Amino acid sequence: MRGRCFVAGLGLAVVLVGPAQADETARLREALRSATAQVRSLEDQRAAIQAKLTTTEQERETAKKQNTALRAQVKEAEQAYRQAVKDFNDRLAERDDTLEKWKSAYAEAASVARTKDAERAKFEGEAKAFKASTRSCEAKNGQLVKISNDVVTRYEAMDPLEKVLDHDPVFGLQRVQHQNQAQEFRDKILDQKAKP
Description:
The structure is a single chain. By secondary structure, the protein is mainly α. It has helices at 2-17, 22-157, 160-167, 175-191. The protein has one domain (2-11, 21-157). Helix content is 90%, strand content 0%. The chain starts with a helix and ends in a 5-residue tail after the last helix.
């Protein structure tokens, strides 16, 4: 606006000067035209700069909004990251607890298995010993049955007179022989006695 007033005032000054100064007027007119062109150019530049300033202000506001939105996203991402780390650490701690429980249970099961294996080996040894003892007892029992049969057979083979003479306290002729046989049978029976 100021530029237009200046140009108008300059134009009025040129008209008032007069004919003598016609060359000077032409030169001033030329200067006026040049100044007018410069003013128009400057106004165009000012308008372009103002448009750029407005665009820049809008871009700055958009950038501020984007910056605020991005900061919010970063904050959310940081919170999500912290939560993910916390969840991961919680799961890791839970896994470690479970692992310790499994280790403890495994150690206990291994201990029980070792104890059971030792008991099984002990019982197998005892069973073998009992089987051997049973076989030995069965064999000795067989011998006792055989000795008992011999005693009964010899006793049955004695005639009544031998029995009387054998038991008679007065005569006792075969008593010594009978006692020797009884001692022999007793020794055979004692040899078959089961030993622990």
